[in-house]
Structure formats: C-alpha cells, structure tokens
Amino acid sequence: MKLDPFYPLVDSSGWIERLVPLGVKLVQLRIKDMPEAELRREIAVSNAICEDHGCRLIVNDHWQLAIEEGCDFVHLGQEDLADADVRAIRKAGLRLGVSTHDGEELETALSVDPDYVALGPVYPTGSKELKWAPQGLEKIGGWKRQIGGLPLVAIGGLTLERVSGVFENGADVAAVISDVTGNRDPEARTREWLSLTEKWR
Ligand SMILES: Cc1ncc(COP(=O)(O)OP(=O)(O)O)c(N)n1
Ligand SMILES: Cc1nc(C(=O)O)sc1CCOP(=O)(O)O
Ligand SMILES: [Mg+2]
C-alpha cells in the first residue's frame, strides 16, 4: 500500500478544513479529551471533508467512533491496541496503523498485521511526553529492513529542514504536528511540505 509521504496530525476538523483543500492527501485527526457527541461530530465532519478532497483520513485512538462514522483507517498506540478489539476493526474493513518505539513494540505491532508501522520519536518533540529518547536516523533503516514492504512512518520533531534525512534513511512517510500547526503561517508551511515531499510521492 502506498501512503502519501506528508502526514500532518491535527486536533480538529477546523484544521482539516484549512489544510486538506491545499492538497494534503493523508491526515490524522488526533483529538484528546472531548465529550463523545462532539468527538463524533468532529470525526464525521473531517471524514466528509476528506472524502470531498480525495484525502485519506486516519482517526487516532477512537476506533469505535471511526467504525460507526464510516471511516476507513485508524491509528493506535500500544496501550490503545491492548484495549482495542482488533477483530472488530478488521471485520468493519478498517485499516490500522500502529506506533512503535522499541523492538518489543514492533513485534506486538507486527502481530496484528498492521497497514503501517510508525517509529518515533526520531527527534526530540514537545508535542507529546514520551519515555523514549530520540531514536535518531540510523534506527529508521533498521526498522525498514525488518518490516520490508510495509510503509514506515517516521514521527517526532520532524521539520522541513529534517525531512529529507528521514526519507533517505528508509522512511516512507513523515508525520508532523508542530512544524505545521505551530507555524505562524500553517497554510504556507503546508504548501512547502507538499512541494518538498513531491519527489517521494
Ligand atoms: C503516526 C503516529 N505515530 C504515533 C502516534 C502516537 O500514538 P500513541 O502512542 O497512541 O499516542 P497518542 O497520539 O494517542 O497520544 C500517532 N498518533 N500517530
Ligand atoms: C504524537 C506523537 N507520537 C510520537 C511517538 O514517538 O510515538 S511523537 C509525537 C508527537 C509529534 O509531534 P511533533 O511533530 O510536533 O514533534
Ligand atoms: Mg493513542
């Protein structure tokens, strides 16, 4: 499966409305701590915008709502995975991406036959508290050799200036939060990301 190399993570349908019409083809809706009815609405609105623009929406964490709202891809971390009903996700026809940070987590991820594996944090990140030290670029190549044809998503501290390095070391996709949504001009930054990642598209 081929995924777009530019994978922004955003925390509202408002961001999806701003960024997807610019040409983003892969986006994650990553919402924490929201009442269920509101969350359901955010997922439904995001799904509709993405469908209109031929963009693949990946819903973080909330796999039951993603199924109920007719989405087709979810992302789960290791703790999410432990609580999730992977058979129900698969039975509903959803694809699944899984976070990994070390060899044991990679084994767990591979045991559910994921549609991509994410490795992080490649660089230090201020967007999530993590117990792992930055993995560095070298780890990317090792991960890619282990997962073969499965898409490898790099995440953590990625910026436009750093992104060539992750692709050159074997990543297929660069996932990013702050370099886009924390930028003083997120639309301009998104256009730059789309342009810079063109050669890996
Ligand atoms: C592409 C991608 N990689 C990693 C994560 C992190 O998932 P998780 O460890 O479950 O943490 P939260 O994002 O849920 O806080 C991700 N969301 N996306
Ligand atoms: C949500 C998340 N997960 C990570 C992991 O390593 O699993 S790093 C991360 C945050 C990425 O944000 P930024 O692009 O701002 O560094
Ligand atoms: Mg999670």
Task: Give an account of the 3D structure.
The chain is α/β, with parallel strands linked by helices and 201 residues long. It has one domain (6-194): TIM Barrel (Alpha-Beta Barrel). 43% of the residues lie in helices and 18% in strands. It has helices at 13-19, 36-53, 63-68, 78-83, 86-91, 103-111, 137-147, 160-168, 178-181, 186-196, and strands at 6-10, 26-29, 56-60, 73-76, 95-100, 116-119, 152-155, 173-176. An 8-stranded parallel beta barrel has the order 1-2-3-4-5-6-7-8, surrounded by 5 helices. Helix 6 links the parallel strand 5 (95-100) and strand 6 (116-119). Helix 1 (13-19) packs parallel to helix 2. The longest helix has 18 residues, at 36-53. The radius of gyration is 16 Å and the shape is globular. The two termini are 13 Å apart. Keywords: Magnesium, Metal-binding, Thiamine biosynthesis, Transferase. Residues 14-180 form the Thiamine phosphate synthase/TenI domain. Mg(2+) binds at residues 61, 80. This is Thiamine-phosphate synthase. Its cofactor is Mg(2+).
